């Protein structure tokens, strides 16, 4: 059953982004409520101009015009799933990630692998957009930490984060072909931010009643911010990630998505403020995000667990 949208929407304008103001404090509360009630929220970020939006999606389209042999080249020394295409359970989906995407050096390394002759428009568009997405991530996490009274931890967590920008394409299903673009899942990240182009398809499962909510509508300055499994553990189960999926419609245009995946490169622990012996007793051991990812990719038993993060790090 598909229900009307219930995802909280927060507008990040100049007044809201001034720390210490009433607007800032209100937004902090809304960010926390969005995560706690639905595991996600939508942010309208007015710093993203339509020109920037269009430029980075033009670059994404150019990337997926490259031959499969080129897209399959090794682009990262870190733990990752390589270029994804034609999975039997997700045949409409393909994606590729860029490490350190908010730095010119990180994107230039990726660009030179894809285009040995160089591609300045691609590099410039991706760096500009990634910086905005990283700024949005840092703002949302600062608001969340402040709402929980743990703002003292924000800087250290930011220093340990590792970002990967994932560019994705979903082709339109052919006649009698599945319309499932991406299976229901939660992200194995700390936080994941999704930005869509023009074609709808993203559906989010309500944490309140289990119904699937209507597609999150694409717009040039709208971002869906998902809590990942690591944020669930860090919050001691105060925040439960929402399942989401992609459903394509026959005859649609191809769908393009850009997502910022954030990982913790090191050990993260549940803050003492998140522990309440009556309502929220401690649920998790110290969390090594990279070890969890490696185990998840390699261990089918872990992949099948109802809650992999609790299976792996739960007390």
Q: CA-to-CA gap between the ends?
A: 35 Å
Helix/strand/pairing category: alpha+beta
- Give average pLDDT, whole number: 91
SSE pattern, N- to C-terminal? EEHEHHEEHHHEEEEEEHEEEEHHH
Quaternary arrangement of the chains shown? single chain
The percent range for strand residues is 15-25%
User: What Rg is obtained from the alpha carbons, in whole angstroms?
Assistant: 19 Å
**Proportion in helices:** 25-40%
Residue ranges: pLDDT <50 for 5 or more in a row? Answer: none
Number of strands: 15
Shape: globular
Strand order of the main beta sheet, please?
2-3-11-8-13-6-5-4
- Tally of helical segments: 10
For the largest beta-sheet, the strand count, sense and barrel status come to:
8 strands, mixed
Helices and strands, with pairings:
Layout: E1 2-3, E2 9-12, H1 22-38, E3 40-45, H2 50-63, H3 68-71, E4 84-87, E5 90-99, H4 104-114, H5 120-148, H6 154-159, E6 161-170, E7 180-185, E8 191-196, E9 202-205, E10 212-213, E11 222-227, H7 229-234, E12 244-247, E13 255-264, E14 267-268, E15 287-288, H8 289-298, H9 300-304, H10 308-313
Parallel strand pairs: 1-10, 2-3
Antiparallel strand pairs: 3-11, 4-5, 5-6, 6-13, 7-12, 8-11, 8-13, 9-10, 9-12, 14-15
Helix pairs in contact: 1-5, 2-5, 4-5
């Amino acid at each position: 059953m598909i229900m009307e949208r219930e995802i909280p929407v927060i507008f990040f304008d100049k007044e809201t982004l001034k720390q210490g103001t009433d607007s800032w404090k209100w937004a902090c509360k809304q960010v926390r409520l969005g995560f706690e009630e639905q595991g996600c929220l939508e942010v309208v970020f007015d710093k993203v101009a339509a020109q920037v939006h269009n430029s980075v999606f033009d670059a994404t389209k150019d990337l997926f015009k490259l031959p499969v042999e080129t897209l399959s080249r090794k682009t990262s020394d870190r733990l990752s799933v390589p270029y994804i295409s034609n999975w039997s359970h997700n045949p409409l989906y393909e994606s590729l990630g860029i490490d350190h995407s908010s730095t010119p050096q990180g994107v230039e390394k990726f660009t030179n692998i894809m285009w040995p002759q160089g591609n300045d428009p691609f590099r410039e568009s991706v760096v500009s957009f990634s910086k905005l997405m990283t700024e949005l991530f840092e703002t949302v996490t600062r608001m969340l930490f402040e709402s929980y009274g743990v703002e003292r931890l924000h800087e250290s967590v930011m220093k340990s984060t590792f970002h990967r920008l994932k560019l994705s394409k979903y082709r339109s299903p052919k006649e009698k072909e599945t319309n499932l673009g991406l299976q229901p899942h939660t992200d194995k990240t700390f936080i994941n931010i999704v930005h869509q182009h023009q074609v709808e398809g993203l559906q989010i499962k309500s944490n309140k009643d289990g119904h699937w909510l209507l597609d999150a509508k694409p717009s040039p300055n709208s971002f869906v911010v998902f809590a990942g499994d690591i944020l669930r553990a860090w919050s001691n189960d105060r925040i439960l990630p929402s399942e989401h999926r992609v459903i394509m419609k026959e005859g649609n245009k191809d769908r393009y998505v850009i997502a910022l995946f954030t990982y913790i490169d090191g050990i993260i622990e549940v803050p003492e403020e998140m522990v309440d012996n009556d309502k929220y007793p401690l649920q998790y051991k110290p969390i090594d995000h990279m070890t969890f990812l490696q185990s998840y990719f390699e261990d089918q038993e872990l992949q099948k667990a109802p809650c992999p993060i609790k299976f792996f790090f739960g007390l």
